[in-house]
Amino acid sequence: MVIIGVVALNLGIGALGDNDTASALLWFSVVIVTLGFVSFSIVRVRRGFSLMPLPGAKMLSVVTCTQCSFKQMKSFALGDYVSKQEGKCTQCGNPTLFISGIFSEDTKKK
Ligand SMILES: [Zn+2]
To answer: What is the mean pLDDT of residues 76-84?
Structure first.
């Protein structure tokens, strides 16, 4: 499409040099259409990229202890799942820590 636009532009300039205004206008309109189409495609591709899941969207895991009221938010790690044992509780020392929930924190809060 860019090549067609460039060729049409050259033909338009050539026609303008020959004082052929009608042909020049025709070629310039072709140039505008092709360039418009190209820029539209670029905008559409960029929009597609912005629709992809943002890497900035935070995933959080809620770690809860069944023996005490200990509750902690930690950033989601690969392999985390609900009810997964998290080991020793930092507050009471019992090995009763587990993941009670996983959620994503939208960085764009309304
Ligand atoms: Zn505890």
So the answer is: 92
